[in-house]
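Hi Prof. W.,

I finally got the histidine kinase prediction working! I wasn't sure whether to trim anything, so I left the full sequence exactly as given:
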Amino acid sequence: MFSNFLKSLSILKKFLFINLVIFLIIGILTALYISNAKPNLIKNKTSKHIQIINNTIEHILRLNIKFEEEDIRKFLFSTRFLFQNLDRVILFDNQFNLVGDTDTLDLDPRSFSSRLDIVELEILDEEKSKKIVETKNINKEKTVSFKDVLTNYSWSKDYGKPFTFIQEGYDQFLLTTVKNITLNGVNIGYLAISENANDVKSAIDERKTFILRTAIFIIIVIFVFSFVLNRYFLKPIKNLVAYTKIIKEKSKKKTNINELKSRNDELGTLSNSLDDMTSELQKRISHAENFSTDLVHEIRNPLTSLKSASEILNETDDQSQRSKLISILNHDVQRIERLITDYSQILKDEVALSKEKMKKINLKLIARSVVDDFNNIYEAKRGIKIMLNDQDDQEEYFINGIENRIEQIIANLLDNSISFSDDNKKILVEIYKGDKDKIIFKVIDEGKGFKETDTKKIFNRFYSNRPDTFGEHSGLGLNIVKNLVELHSATINASNNVTQEGANVEIVFPKV
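And this is what came out:
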């Protein structure tokens, strides 16, 4: 179902959806990282607290300090070097009564330095101590009852182990660790130390800020990339798709991909290839439709003649008349057969041409081979001599082409010239280089020449001006030649000879 959902999305939507999924996965992993980072930082702080608590408890036990206010006050002053970087140290007896609190000591700011100088203690009355505590607790949003914390701690299953809790306000992140003090297996009191761990909060806030900035940056990058992807890639592809749909549906909507064709990137190349392919397909379709129409038209005439001759044949008893009608029937059948055979050959040629590839070939060698084959047949049969005249025997005439198709072109031209030539005539085949090193191929005969003023007509399908041999030729030979010549990016022209009787056909091949 998910795969079907993805398939139904456009490329842009797929891109955005996949990015959203990745973004959510990264967001979840980031949230897990942040949630784990805070406990890890607190754990590091707690380990330092535990070390200080253990050292403090060791001093209390070693010095045999009683959990009374006077002894505890002296102890706090004498061991203040243990509590560097701590904000507050509190001691309670085993009844949860406060016996020592650094917040109630009016100490010199240097008291918690590393100096071990003796500082004179100030005896504080209850009112002044309360005032100092209130002053130091100002701006604190919440005050935790240590008595409640100690009560819960004493009843918990982790009693005897250090216990850490936090007080988090708007401007502070207070970390407090509590542990009981035992002497000979008996609990004699509790020690709590507090540290303003704003660096933990700052570290978490910095990570959150960094992640937020990164997320915003990634969103902007995705947005920009999506815009570029849609504007310069997906939208042109949509235009190409619309173009192909219009062509497929034969819609009358105007299509214009010239803007895409003018691009110098892969989409421009694709647009040009697609347009060329579409034009070629349309040309082939039009060619096939016209060809089929012409073929139907050409077959209709002999069919009509066949029908008329067969009807008359059934009605007449005259043997001479029946012989003429049978001759007409045979002639029309041969004509239809010739048309279908040539048409079938053209279709086969078109299929073969789509599979064959051009390569560099020597036109002179191919022409010599074809000329020799024709001489072997027609010189003995009709006395017609075909002469190959290349201006320089040492010169090579290379073209880009398909070898068997070039043979077909030359053979069809020679066959056409022979059909117009009388016996014992000559046909000249010339190969030479023209302007800009173009290769010129000519077939010059001594036949009757062309009667048409416009010689371009002779290359049309089914065109044949042979009143004396009507029906013996399909009129497709020269049309096949023209199609093959155009396939090789060459041009073909026909004209009558100026200085002698006959005609010549000229093909101009482009320079390799």
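The chain has twelve helices and twelve strands. Does that look reasonable to you?

Thanks,
D.
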